Each structure stands twice: as structure tokens, then as C-alpha cells.
Amino acid sequence: MNVDQVALRPIAEDDLETLTRFSVEPEVAGLFGWLGWSDPGRWRRRWAENGFLDAESGLLLVVHGAERLGFVSWRKSLTSRTSYCWNVGIALLPEARGRGFGTRAQRLLAEYLFAHTQVARVEAVTEFTNVAEQRALEKAGFTREGVLRAYSFRNGRWRDAVLYSVVRDEVDLPG
């Protein structure tokens, strides 16, 4: 499959079953994404409320043609009293991992956010041991900024994380 054909699109109602799998199937969420059982109905409620798109956050489906690969998300992260950046994330289905789709999707998301919002920075945080995601972020144009000690809690332990960012001047936007 050609990774250049990966695209992002808004979530449709028939995509909700795919999203729900990340809440109810540990093997779909994966080692770094599984944080325990969570409310599978939250996907449908949020979709009905705003289609996963509002001023504070968003979620888009990652697709390759008609094939659903997973999703990318973003949320507002305050950087001062008067400014913010976007913090982004990704979740891919097991069969889509390790094939370059995540790199392409994260690059597309950064381009989208810079094209349609006024932020100067997009950042991502991943577990220190998630080397595959670190490589994907670097290939997508993100720069490693540092280690965040005891940043997130997963599977009974506090985990270190790595902070990455890309700034507006590092992304070529069309037009």
C-alpha cells in the first residue's frame, strides 16, 4: 500500500464501531494504548454532541481508500494565560502499525492544524519505551525536546515519556 494515499477525514456514524474497539479490546489498543476498560458509549455520545470536532479538541479517522486504519486526535494545551498549542495523538489498528501510515497521518494532522488554526506549535508525548512511535514522529518532522519523568500511569507503574514538537515555520503549507 502506498502511504501517500493515506488521508484524514471526519468521523462518520458507521466508524463508531471501529473506535469502540480501542475501548473494549486490549489487543487493539496495544501495549501503549491500553489504559484499562473504559466506557465504550463515550464514542457515540461525543460523536452525537459535536462529531468529535470543537474548539478545544478533535478527532479524525485515518484511512487508506475505504480502509479504516485508526484515528488521530488533538487537544488544546495551554502554554500561558493567553496562548496554547495542540497536543496530538494517534491510535492505529494492529494491522496498520509498522507500515508508515502513522508517520504520514501525524504529518497530515500537523499540516491540517497549522493550516486551519493560528497555533505556532504542535506537540506529541509518547512513552519512553515506545521507540516505534518516536521514530514515526521524527520521520513526520517532529523534534525530540526531552524526557518527562514519571509522566503517565499505565499498568501499575508511572512511566517516563518523551516530548516532541513541530513549529509552524518547519512545515511547508500549500498556497
TrEMBL record:
InterPro entries associated with the record: Acyl_CoA_acyltransferase (IPR016181), GNAT_dom (IPR000182), Ribosomal_N-acetyltransferase (IPR051908)
Enzyme class: transferase
EC number: 2.3.-.-
Pfam families found in the cross-reference section: Acetyltransf_3
Sequence ranges assigned to domain N-acetyltransferase in this UniProt record: 6-169
The entry's keywords: Acyltransferase, Transferase
Top-level taxon of origin: Bacteria
Keyword ATP-binding carried by entry: no
Gene Ontology molecular-function annotations: acyltransferase activity
Membrane-spanning intervals of the chain: none
Name of the featured protein: GNAT family N-acetyltransferase
